[in-house]
User: What shape does this take?
Amino acid sequence: MQLSDYLFWDVDKATVSFEEHKGFIIPRVFMRGTLEDFKAVLNYYGKLVCKDQLTQTRYLDKKTLSFCCVFFNLELNQFRCFTEKQSNSQHWNY
Assistant: This one.
């Protein structure tokens, strides 16, 4: 699977295993990837695996979370990142 290099700026892309690190890859592509990256991830993992990984991830930005709700036809409370929000208030809530 070919993904944009900038998605892996903080890790060595050669050491990333698509099967072993899908919990890292899928949320990152949904939040920061291009349309081509998005299509590649859906084709490789399938919609069900993507949905399972995204509902269990600890963080999604608000825009990605809203998109995932619509795309997978889910409610906000079905996402772990929504139900387990940080209890500390943020300085900027945008």
Notes: The chain has a mean pLDDT of 91.
